[in-house]
TrEMBL record:
Molecular-function GO terms, alphabetical: ATP binding; ATP hydrolysis activity; ATPase-coupled transmembrane transporter activity
Organism classification: Bacteria, Pseudomonadati, Pseudomonadota, Gammaproteobacteria, Aeromonadales
Database matches in PROSITE patterns: ABC_TRANSPORTER_1 (PS00211), ABC_TRANSPORTER_2 (PS50893)
GO biological process: thiamine transmembrane transport
GO cellular component: membrane
Signal sequence, start to end: none
Gene3D superfamilies from the UniProt entry: P-loop containing nucleotide triphosphate hydrolases
Pfam families referenced in this protein's UniProt entry, alphabetically: ABC_tran (PF00005)
InterPro entries: AAA+_ATPase (IPR003593), ABC_SmlMolc_Importer (IPR050093), ABC_transporter-like_ATP-bd (IPR003439), ABC_transporter-like_CS (IPR017871), P-loop_NTPase (IPR027417), Thiamine_ABC_ThiQ (IPR005968)
Protein name: ABC-type thiamine transporter, ATP binding protein
Gene this chain is encoded by: thiQ
Native species: Aeromonas salmonicida (strain A449)
Keyword terms of this UniProt record: ATP-binding, Cell inner membrane, Cell membrane, Membrane, Nucleotide-binding, Translocase, Transport
SMART domains cross-referenced by the UniProt entry: AAA (SM00382)
Length: 231
């Protein structure tokens, strides 16, 4: 379980404060208007954004003293950061601890991650030989090979066409279920939350204004949510 309690950071003209609980092994969608603080919250959890006060723990472990590399967290961004001169295999392997050579066990991990996202027969290809969706799958496989229990998705599929985006979301849901991964997913599209999320956090003006099942997108009369949905 990810516990966020009074997590605060400030900018010269803006302050955010977040509190929420994310059940272990579930998918939580983080929605809200642009500039509300969604990506800031992910950055605080991942360790990229300084935290002024509050607590952050995962399965009882205090995450705040830990650096980004030490946290049980993997983040997948819209820019999947593939190295164009490296094969699919090598791009996935970057997710493993650095070393002079991969051990046989690590090589097996890479191949298994590739197979899980449907790239098992494309390990020798370069990124330029892949479609946009396949490139996103490489990024997802790299996240999986790290073996960390908390996956943060900062709109990694927003540039894909609707059908491919739904396919990738379904892939995330399947993999999260199979491996018991806790997922926090930022999206500007409420449909994404309704497709795969177990719960929804609505962020408004630097705080979590609503938390509940995806049904709140249809049943809540919160003014900020209604404005966001254009109702």
């Amino acid at each position: 379980m990810l516990n966020i309690d009074g997590l605060v950071t400030s900018y010269p003209d803006w302050r955010v404060s977040f509190s929420a609980t994310l059940p272990k092994g579930e998918i939580t969608a983080l929605i809200g208007p642009s500039g509300a603080g969604k990506s800031t919250l992910l950055g605080m959890i991942a360790g990229f954004v300084p935290v002024e006060s509050g607590t952050l723990s995962f399965d009882g472990e205090d995450l705040l003293p830990l650096g980004p590399a030490e946290r049980p967290v993997t983040t997948l961004f819209q820019d999947h950061n593939l190295f164009l001169h490296l094969s699919v295999f090598d791009n996935i392997a970057i997710g493993l601890p650095p070393g002079l050579r991969l051990s046989p066990a690590q090589q097996a991990q890479v191949k298994q991650a590739a197979e899980r996202v449907g790239l098992g027969d494309m390990l020798a290809r370069l990124p330029e030989q892949l479609s946009g969706g396949q490139q996103q799958r490489v990024g997802l496989a790299r996240a999986l090979v790290r073996g960390k229990p908390l996956l943060l998705l900062d709109e990694p599929f927003s540039a894909l066409d609707p059908a491919l985006r739904r396919e990738m979301l379904a892939e995330v849901a399947r993999l999260a279920c199979e491996q018991g991964i806790t997922v926090l997913m930022v999206s500007h599209n409420p449909e994404d939350a309704q497709l795969i999320a177990d719960q929804v956090l609505f962020v408004d003006e630097g705080r979590i204004a609503l938390q509940g099942t995806p049904d709140i997108l249809q049943n809540s009369d919160h003014p900020g949510l209604l404005r966001y949905l254009g109702q």
